[in-house]
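Before the break, one more example. Copy the sequence into your notebook; we will annotate it together after we see the structure.
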Amino acid sequence: MKRGHYTGRDFRRAITIEDLRRMARRRLPNFSFEYVEGGAEDESTLRRNRDVFERIAWLPRALVGAGPPDLGTQIFGRPVNMPVVVAPTGFNGLLWPQGDIALAKAAAAAGIPFTLSTASNCAVGRLAAAVQGNLWYQLYAYKDQSVVDRLIDRVAEAGCEELVITADAPVLGSREWDQRNYRSPMQLSLASKLDVLCHPRWLSQVMLPSGAPTFENLVEFLPPGQYSALIGAKYSFSQINSRLSWHDVERVRKRWPGKLVVKGLLCVADAQRSVEAGVDGIVLSNHGGRQLDGAVSGVELLPAVAAEVGDRLTLMVDGGFRRGSDVLKAIALGAHAVMIGRATLYGLAAGGEAGASHALDLLRAEMDRAMLLLGCGSIPELGRHLIHS
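Here is what the structure looks like once it is written out:
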């Protein structure tokens, strides 16, 4: 019998993140899936994010009697059930109704943090009222400082304790495959509209009840009554701060009382500078391959950055994680936690909150199994001694 992936709709039959990805691909119209899937330009960064894991080989320890592993650890002093954070992703309402809330609930059930994006379809206050969990907020440091200040204050009012500044978006990357679905900004081509009609289940669940989801965190700053996705996107694009600098990070540091994370660093010097700026954590990230094509993977930088600043702040990484063993490789190389983006989005698109939970369950099961095979009983036992170099 020829090998093949499950081709049905029951996300519970998915045994890998790749299975969920294929289910998401079938359920979503192409423009929506491409928004999640695509990378910048020739997508070499996107491919590199996956290829790096194949170049990292394990040196497992045998006959150590480790027993059932404990995946629990701490992030910023708070206990978590595994070293994973759900990464900030925008426009999740295009995948599933109330997609941000569904993802946050899945993260809370798994005992890990969830990060809400500025470009989300759920206001931070509404999310905090709906989900009792470890909620973080991702901030685009727009050029209008009054907007930034208001967003920071609103996040504090909602009770979030971690703020994540995205540092690698002074301009949007050119996601060419995504752009090919449109005849003009936010205006689908005729072929894309016909493709939408070929996905009636998605259409009836996501679009027909109330139209395209809006950017709720930005509504306060839009013209009265003009809250459409198109208006919100145009506003967000107009507010991109091409002059974003460490001065802006230091300004946020003075205003924000909680833990501050900078996401989107890709060199040791920037990691060192983040310590000087009073940052509590950093995320080595190339924005999931969606910004600068030809960039290095954050995982490749982990050993050097961990050696330089790993004992002075919380070190995280994202980009290309599809297996529980990928997460463990990052921890062994010096990360304290891993941010997961597309993996949980595939689950969300395939089955909503339950699908996202299934994605996290798959990753956890893979981590459990890999830990046993490595001879490790707990997260602190992971280290460079298990990596072949």
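The two ends are 38 Å apart (CA to CA). The chain has 15 helices and 14 strands. Try to locate both features in your own notes.
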